[in-house]
Specification:
Helices cover 73% and strands 0% of the residues. The longest helix is centred in the N-terminal third of the chain and has 45 residues, at 3-47. It is elongated and about 80 Å long. It has one domain (1-246). The protein has helices at 3-47, 62-86, 89-115, 117-132, 141-154, 164-169, 199-209, 211-246. It has 247 residues and is mainly alpha-helical. This is Tetraspanin.
């Protein structure tokens, strides 16, 4: 067998293995995006703007975030899958560039978060306190439900203190979700019957307690993206070599 023919067959075999690997990888990627998008749509339909705590960014809800992330993952997965099946160099290169851009943006976001952590803490607390003013008002069901769930689940009251609610009601009162034992209008009772722990610190403590799980998730996500980058660029280069060989 001529060496050129042997190399050609080896190249074709590598291309086939890479193609199947890319298709399988991006199919999982696409299905994951479909799942995230489905959960986001379900939350949007059934819960409104669930988990909207920010007053300055009302669109920053759990439903909208899941819909955006799911859509992006679906589009990128579709690009990679079609590019692998058709061995399209433009699609493979587009997939690689988009995935690389997202990867760098994630790294940049993490770096900026640690550099400006104190400023982010200050801004977040100020924005959350501002959002308390919208609690229970018309058109802010998502924010109201989110605060009720957070205070009940984390056994806390207010952003930095239960007195944050005094400015909202203009009296010594808190929402009923702040009560040690829930009952209608229990927020009007003695302060000794309310949770006093700050919700902001409680949520931060919960994140710190689950830091290992969060880092494992981040590393798995990074590894998946790196594999996608390697697969796509290797297949792109191999496609160029095969095309050059036949030319």
């Amino acid at each position: 067998m001529r060496p050129e023919l042997r190399r050609c067959r080896m190249a074709e075999g590598c291309m086939m293995a890479l193609r199947y690997g890319m298709v399988f990888f991006n199919l999982l990627f696409w299905l994951g995006g479909c799942g995230i998008l489905g959960v986001g749509v379900w939350l949007s339909v059934t819960q409104g703007n669930f988990a909207t705590l920010s007053s300055s960014l009302p669109s920053l809800s759990a439903a909208n975030l899941l819909i955006a992330v799911g859509t992006i993952i679906m589009v990128i997965g579709c690009l990679g899958c079609v590019g692998a099946v058709k061995e399209s160099r433009p699609l493979l290169l587009t997939f690689f560039i988009l995935l690389l851009l997202i990867f760098f943006l994630e790294i940049l976001s993490i770096m900026l978060f640690f550099i400006y952590q104190d400023e982010i803490d200050h801004y977040a607390q100020r924005d959350l306190k501002k959002g308390l003013q919208l609690f229970g008002t018309e058109g802010n069901v998502g924010l109201t439900n989110a605060w009720m769930i957070v205070q009940t689940d984390f056994r806390c009251c207010g952003v930095t203190n239960h007195t944050d609610w005094f400015e909202v009601y203009n009296t010594t009162r808190v929402p009923d979700s702040c009560c040690l034992e829930y009952s209608d209008n229990c927020g009007l009772d003695n302060p000794g019957t309310w949770w006093t722990a700050p919700c902001y610190e409680r949520v931060k403590d919960w994140l710190n307690e689950n830091l290992v799980a969060l880092w494992i998730f981040a590393l798995c996500t990074a590894l998946t993206q790196i594999l996608g980058l390697v697969f796509s660029m290797t297949m792109f280069c191999q496609a160029v070599k095969v095309e050059t060989f036949y030319a």
